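REVIEWER CHECKLIST
Item 1: Sequence provided? yes
Item 2: Single chain? yes
Item 3: Sequence as submitted:
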Amino acid sequence: MDHKGKTRQAMPRSFRRALRTSAGTLAAALTCVLAACTTNPSDAVSVFDTTKLQQDIDVMVKSGVVGVQAEVVDAGRRLDLRGGVAQLETNEPVPRQGYFRMGSNTKTFTATVVLQMAGEGKLSLDDTVEKWLPELVTGNGNNGSKITVRQLLQHTSGLHEHVQALPAMASEKGFQEHREDDYQPEQLVKLGLEHAPDFPPGTEWSYSNTGYIIAGMIIEKAGGKTWGEEVRHRIIKPLRLSHTSAPGDDPAMPTPHARAYQRFAPDGPMVDTTDVNMSMAWSAGQLITNPDDLVTFWRGLLSGKLLAPAQLAEMKKTVPAQAPGFPDGMQAGLGIFKFPLTCGGSYWSHPGGTIGYLTLNGFTDNGTKGVVLSQSATNVTPDQAPQAQKAVADALCQKD
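Item 4: Structure as written out by the authors:
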């Protein structure tokens, strides 16, 4: 749910039945899907070759990533891939369509809700933070009357990053002692405001989870419902994302899932971080999902099912951006990033990292082709993010 309550979403009975389906039936069904099951040979579609992507997944596992799952969509055809194990203590494979914490992919959901509200006239992207949340952003040179909603969504607000002050993020000891700490949004914003702005609003770009916590608070003020309710009403229900939820302060993960692991120090152990209270991320990174749901979300977003053309165009207006571990040429829109492709062109995405899960994705401009990739381990190696980025690019550059 959200910071005002908690609900765990049960796995649908139909999904449990699907897991018990025989291998022979699944193989026959998959063959039918890939061959388009048409009686006219001229109507048959080509099959996406997963060889390169599976090789990329195998490289990730060999480098130390515990588990990997991916879903590719190409002109409506979907394929699941996986590698590694569900947890270190067993040889059990990563479950198909396993749940994971999407991390900052949540920001794309939050930005989508804000843009929907803008299209409805409930707010404007040029509104200031001060208009909606008087006296929230003050002190240490911070001034809410100088920061707009657009700047919050595009990471040009200059607000300092609050995540750095969270004890659960700092060390294994801090995580074990603070993994169940419960935070209210106002507390998170206060942590960011203990610092001066990184730069005057609108003059530079710097990633800020703090800005997205404030965006979630504005959603609640403008809509009259909680952030979690708005996400469910505006995105989860219309797209029928039956495996996507906001857990609120519930630290548990729904099943099935691969266990999450974090290496807090370069030579340290892999720490099981599966169960954690993600109120520390709220509207900036709290949502749980599975590959199929996240693919459905991105396709729905980019195909225009969630935003009117004017609002989708606003989302795609970009400014230059640069962050450690990401390639040159990255551009930031409103809750969405544009990355260059090695084979030419570009793709839309939003990376997502939590304590133990790393998620990357990439979709073509209209969402017809894309990939979602989730790793159940973080800080494994300095090459971890680039390896995942390569896998996304290889999938998108695949020629049918």
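Item 5: Key structural point noted by reviewer: Confidence is low (pLDDT under 50) at residues 1-46.
Item 6: Recommendation: ____
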